[in-house]
Amino acid sequence: MFLRLVIYRIKVLLQNRTLLFWTFAFPVVLGLLFNLAFSGLDDLGSLETTEVGIVSTDEQKTDRFVEVLASIENDGEPVYREKRLTKQEAIAQLADDKIAGYYEITPEDISLSVSQNGIPQTVLKEFLNQYIQRTAEFEALLASGSVQPQDLSEDTFSDTEFVTESHESSNYSIKSFYFFTLVAMAIMYGFMWGLRNANDQQANQSSNGIRLCIMPKNKLMVATANLLASFLLFYLQSMLILAVFRFVYQVDFGDRWLHIFLVYAVASVATLSFGTLVGNVFAKWNFQQKISLGVGVSMAMSFFAGMMGTQTLKHWINVNLPLLGRINLVNLISDSLYQLFYYQSLKPFYQNMVWLTGFAVVFMLLSYYYERKVQYDHL
């Protein structure tokens, strides 16, 4: 009987073309736009040597930064050539397009100024983001006493290692990073199927809910069958989207495929359970209002996860408000994929899996609590 409920539920869900579009077709179309926008960012072959201004009030900090910047090479030739300038000279040369941009280096901060958007400017921005992020990580390691300063200077700020990790697709890919956030957002959209389950399980929300409530079957069995059916359908959708991203859009996800499939599975259960919980908590809202709430939450999570060009904000949150990053489902999913792609150690990945699993369990228990206490005067 349970298997029959699952099969019937899958048939019902397949008839909902609107949700099929938003959870399958929309991510694929958005992925096409991402591919057109970011496909050239990892190709340094199209870059000629470009001059970059350096405005400095901290010579020691500047020397280290310039050494790393000069290590960016294309076929043995430097991609960027630094020019030491005053701020007034840098502003004038930037206005005349004599430099791609200029870095202003002070004891407190490093900032970048550009006058246009192009591949050289984009790479300069990404380089600065990665440099600041890695430097903060190393300062934290030094403060903890887990490494020695000479180890960092030898292993990290060598001529090629840092830049290789920042720009070669085998170690760091700008395109892959943005697709990781897109994948996370697409998985987050699984909340829509969870909302549909909640809507169809409550008698005060739909006619389907009335029929399910008068069935001579345990409500927990019905809810579990609905969750399993939506999981199977959504997971299959997600695998198809992943195949399009990998084989059509040529996105590099690394080679840890079993772990990637695990991310999809755990994250799908978490987002489906989240949608069911939202549907039960806001039972008095109509379905469209709950969809709008879920989309708004998903977009906010995507923004703080760095999807809209907000990598600097994402890094600031990770450093200063790490708990906010931990409770962001989109950030947890995209970080898990990033860690599989970038890090050798799987410890951070498993920590994210524990958080995602915890959220899934909490969402399911709360949904069960809300559904269990629902009573109706009449049907």
TrEMBL record:
Membrane-topology annotation of the record: Multi-pass membrane protein
Coiled coil ranges: none
Record's subcellular location: Membrane
Phylogenetic lineage: Bacteria, Bacillati, Bacillota, Bacilli, Lactobacillales
Signal peptide positions on this chain: none
All copies of domain ABC-2 type transporter transmembrane, residue ranges: 18-369
Keywords: Membrane, Transmembrane, Transmembrane helix
The keyword Hydrolase is assigned to this record: no
InterPro entries attached to this UniProt entry: ABC-2_transporter, ABC2_TM
Pfam families found in the cross-reference section: ABC2_membrane_3 (PF12698)
Predominant location: membrane
Segments traversing the membrane: 20-38, 177-195, 220-245, 257-279, 291-311, 353-370
Protein name in the entry: ABC transporter permease
